[in-house]
Each structure stands twice: as C-alpha cells, then as structure tokens.
Amino acid sequence: MTSETEKTAHDRTDAAEAREGGAAYFKSAGMSGAVAGDRASPQPADADGDDAVPTWGGEDAGAADRARIAELEAENADVKDRMLRLAADMENLRRRTEREIKDARQFAVTAFARDMLAVSDNLSRALQAVPDEARSGGDAGLTALVEGVEMTGRSMLSTMARHGVTKLEPLNERFDPNFHQAMFEIPNADLPNNTVVQVVQDGFAIGDRVLRPALVGVSKGGPKAAAAQPTNEPKPGAPDLSTGDA
Asked: What are 67-120's pLDDT values in tens digits?
C-alpha cells in the first residue's frame, strides 16, 4: 500500500514539473520571438531627415556634370569653327588650282608662239619686198611664189588662232596702251585725237594677255576722243577679277 501511494505521489510530481517546464519553454520562446521582432522592425526616420537615403552623387555631381557639358559645348563650337575655316580654305584652293590649270593649258604655248611670230614677220617682209610691178608683170613663177608665201602666212595665223593666239586689229581704233605701242604721231584734224592711223608691226594676244603689242602711229590735232563706255566683259590683256577667292 505504501509503495503505491509513493508511486502516485511521484507521478504527480513529474506531471507538475512537466507542466512547469512547458510553461517556461513557451514563455521563453515568446520572449525570444518578441526580441527578434523588435530587432527586425524598421526604425522610423527622424523628422529632420538625417537618416534619409542620399541621392546619387548629390549636388556636387550635378555641378560637375553641368561644367562638363559646358566644356563639351565649347569644344564642339571650336571644332565647328575650324571645320568651316578648313572648308573655306579648301574651296579657295580648288578655285585657285582650277585657274592655274586653265592658265597653264592656255599659256603653255606662249614662248613657242612668240618665236613663231618672228617667222610670220619674215613672211610678211618677204611679200613686202616684192615690187608691185613684178607682181603685175605676169611672171607665172613669181606669181606662184607670192601666192605660196601668202598661203603659208595665212595657214600659220590660223594655226596659232586654234591655240588661242589672235591677231590684234587696231587700225582706226582708239589707242589703248594695254595693246598698242605708239611709235609716232601723224597730224590729222579730221580724226579724233589718239586714233590709230597706221600699223607698223602687227600685235598679237594669247587668251586675255598681250603676247606682243602692236607698233602703231596715232593721229594728233583732232577732237578729243570720247571715253569708252565701261563693260562687264574683261578685255584681252586685262586681269579677270570675276573669279576672286572667297
């Protein structure tokens, strides 16, 4: 009997201890969970914004970006200005090169043409040396010779004309010092003053340049010649300013 009573008391003691242990366990678990929850809960930011997350780079980075943009814009403007100047220089170079090529092609025969003028002068002198009586005398051989020299002279002039060498025709024209060289004056009151009345030696021009001025005699004592009206077309021997560089 006594042993059963002791056993029953022992069982009750164990049950009480188990209940106390479970209560303690759940109590400790609740406290730890509360502590964990308190740690995980977010903390509110202060009213002054001291704990606010800062923006990317801040105001210093914005000022640096604006300074860099201004620097790039200035560099872009400088490059654009240099490119425009370079384009203008290249255009001037293109025009100057075209003009030089044109002049080189046009005036390449200048020295040769000047030498050929001496041959043309000799042919003219040969014809002038034949007396008029001999020409009208009816000698077939002399007539053929004269005609052959004349044909040779005309052929030479036409050949030089194809290469840009043209003969000046100053007779009865107003004296122009750019194309003519006055050798003497002839008194003549019927003609305007400084009118070409005689050509001693023919003059030639190549393109717009004088190859050789004409040797002429001019009138003197007549009325003053009217001034020539200005024209837009460049005269032979005068520089052409219509193709000036930009």
From this structure: 889 999 999 999 999 999 999 999 999 999 998 898 888 788 888 888 888 888
How far from chain centre, in Å, is Cα 102? 18
**Tokens read off for 236:** 């032979």
Asked, for residue 206, whether it belongs to a domain, the answer is yes
- 33 phi and psi, to 5 degrees? -65, -40
Q: Is the Cβ–Cβ distance between 216 and 199 less than 8 Å?
A: yes
Q: Are strands 165-167 and 204-206 parallel, antiparallel or unpaired?
A: antiparallel
Q: Which residue has the tokens 């403007």?
A: 77
Is residue 188 a part of any domain in this protein? yes
Q: How many Å apart are CA 167 and CA 157, to the nearest integer?
A: 8
Distance, CA of 110 to CA of 209 (rounded, Å): 10
> Residues 4-51: pLDDT tens digits?
555 555 566 665 565 655 555 444 544 444 444 444 444 544 444 455
- 213 contacts 203 by C-beta, under 8 angstroms: yes
**Domain ranges, residue 198:** 168-227
Q: What is the CATH number of the domain that holds 178?
A: 2.30.22.10
178 domain-assigned: yes
Which residue shows structure tokens 């005036």?
A: 107
47 lies in a domain? Answer: no
